[in-house]
Amino acid sequence: MRFTYLLILIACLVVTLPLELFLGARVYRQPLRLLLTLIPVVGFFTVFDEWGIWRGHWAFDSRQITGLELPFDLPVEEVLFFAVIPVCALLTYEAVRRLTGWGDE
Amino acid sequence: MTYTRAILLVTAGTVVMDFVLLTGLLRRKAFWASYVVLLGFQLIVNGLLTCREIVTYAPDSILGTKLACAPVEDLLFGFALVLQTLVWWTFLGRVARRRTPR
Fold first, then answer.
1. Which of A26, A54, B35, B62 is the 20 to 30 A CA-CA neighbour of B5?
2. d(Cα A45, Cα A53) in Å, to the nearest integer?
3. Is B24 helix (H, G, I), strand (E, B) or coil?
4. B100 pLDDT higher than 90
5. B53:A61 CB<8 A
């Protein structure tokens, strides 16, 4: 199914949304900090992914992705993955900090 | 260069970043507690992607050992992705605090 990968990514965001809304992780509420964090992360891992595809280390099933691709056969879902997973990581980290009170230690 | 070697390099580089940018994530309880949670999350999400063969790996590019359908190299990949994200986030938070007039 063409939207399988995309649906998995959307599910990640939906499942972690309560961390922002109810557990006080202030990630979406710091949009500039979030954007500036995502730029180098998405940038670096996109390049790394392109390299891996180009070298033949990994490949994607065209039946389970939308087919939208960046140059050199990079599925757009991969770029989204490099934004979505970091967002989930940040939400988890900030929620953990808030719940435990573990600040800088 | 195989995926194995490349991801070892990337992970090492990310660890160096944590030191060079003075973000100290690797010595924080909050980081490790979050990482344990995220690891479970990764095994599910990455498991979905690899068990369903949305992404596949060339046998010559990996060691061959797998966990929840995914090459063990993906564990390092996840670690590097999470650490790098938190390093930048923390670094930017510090920069913002230093620039805030008191």
1. B35
2. 12
3. coil
4. no
5. yes
Give the residue among B1, B17, B11 at the shortest CA–CA distance from B60: B1
Whether residue A34 contacts residue A90, with contact meaning beta carbons closer than 8 Å, is answered with: yes
ipTM of the complex: 0.94
Task: Read off the pTM.
Answer: 0.94
**A47 is written with which tokens?**
């390049």
Q: Are A25 and A94 in contact (CB under 8 A)?
A: yes
- Chain A positions in Cβ-Cβ contact with residue B86 (cut-off 8 Å): 89-90, 93
In A39-102, where do the E strands start and end? 58-60, 69-70, 74-75
Which residues sit opposite B57 in a β-bridge?
A58
- A96, A100, A105: best to mutate for the B interface, most B CBs within 10 A: A96
